[in-house]
TrEMBL record:
Pfam families for the chain: Alpha_L_fucos
The organism of origin for this protein: Niabella drilacis (strain DSM 25811 / CCM 8410 / CCUG 62505 / LMG 26954 / E90)
Keyword set includes Zinc: no
Name of this protein: Alpha-L-fucosidase
InterPro entries: GH, Glyco_hydro_29_N
């Protein structure tokens, strides 16, 4: 009977430790997500030429247009 009690107690302790660990990880993840929210800036996208002109294209893209054209199978 003593061994059964010890085994059950040990199992219960391990399960509770796992639940606590999962809960702690969940809480830490939620806190870190909430802390990071103000730092993410949503940039609004408008489907017009003025919005596209505001974004600069890198020099390598301007130089490699022919290579990209060939890459797509033409």
């Amino acid at each position: 009977m003593q061994e059964l009690f010890y085994t059950n107690y040990l199992y219960t302790t391990i399960v509770m430790m796992n639940r606590r660990s999962v809960f702690r990880i969940f809480v830490i993840t939620c806190c870190m997500t909430c802390m990071a929210m103000p730092y993410t800036k949503a940039q609004s996208y408008q489907a017009n030429w003025a919005s596209l002109d505001q974004r600069s294209t890198p020099q390598w893209f301007r130089d490699a247009k022919f290579g990209i054209f060939i890459h797509w199978g033409i």
